[in-house]
Amino acid sequence: MEYKVSDIMTKNPVKYNVPSSIAEVIKVLIKNNVTGIPVVDNYNKYQGVITRRDIFYNPDETQTALVMRKAKPINENDSVENAANELVKQGKRHLIVINDNKEVTGILTPQNFLNVAKEKYGNIKIKNIIEYNSVCIWENTPLSVALVMMKLSQIFSFPVLDENGKFIGLITDRDIFDKVKMSHTSVLSEAGIADDEDPWSWDGIRNVFTYIIEKSNIKIPNIKVNKLMVPNPNIIYLESTVEDAVKLMAKGNYNQLPILSGHGDIYGMLYDIEILKIFSDKNVQ
Fold this sequence. Notes:
Layout (H helix, E strand, L loop, with lengths): L4 H4 L1 E2 L4 E2 L4 H11 L3 E5 L5 E6 H5 L7 H4 L6 E2 L4 H11 L4 E4 L5 E5 L1 H12 L15 E2 L4 H11 L3 E5 L5 E6 H7 L4 H7 L11 H6 L1 H8 L13 E2 L4 E2 L4 H11 L3 E5 L5 E6 H4 L10
Parallel strand pairs: 2-3, 5-6, 8-9, 12-13
Antiparallel strand pairs: 1-7, 3-4, 6-7, 9-10, 10-11, 13-14
């Protein structure tokens, strides 16, 4: 079956208008538990995209227009292959979908492509598609150092190694949020958004946790990574297939999986966006 963008996109996404402030956008991200949104004008015409990562990297900006990216959108009638190629080319996690009138009708993230990838390319081995960098971290690294490493590397999931270089777990920015003790009220207060009467979701707040830490100078407890990591996480092997990876990602709602060699040593990380390159790389088998 040949798929179009409209077959796999998330339809009628949450949107926001320009002009607006970053604080208002953060409220939308939290309330809807999303990591990125299209920015439109008063006629629903596409203006750009803004994501939590864009906000992280511009913590001192207050206006949406100065932070949003005017990234190329994709038409809803375009092919899935072209959309995957565009997302990989941009190197981002959100691709906005428009119709022929340039109105926003959907949004794509790597997760939208995974079932099609499994259907069409499920037998391709992981060793033939990995290329993204990964960063490992020592189990006794302080949490404050881990957060600096994430910010500078722009990688938010680290395989954890013991003193012998053996893989013992995985830590992500979301694991840090789950374990760091901060009250609901104090987090919202530090972010400058506690005066809103609408309900707030902890899952939504997780999406902007790193921004809140950066912006508000919240003190991070002196905890070592091995106290926060996920021990024995789901893993795949170099000889595993795309189908194997997609099943695990879908089951756990993961964006990445550690890759081990046949001897059980850490080899790297597989990110969901890497799987998308098989839609356009004719040399991958």
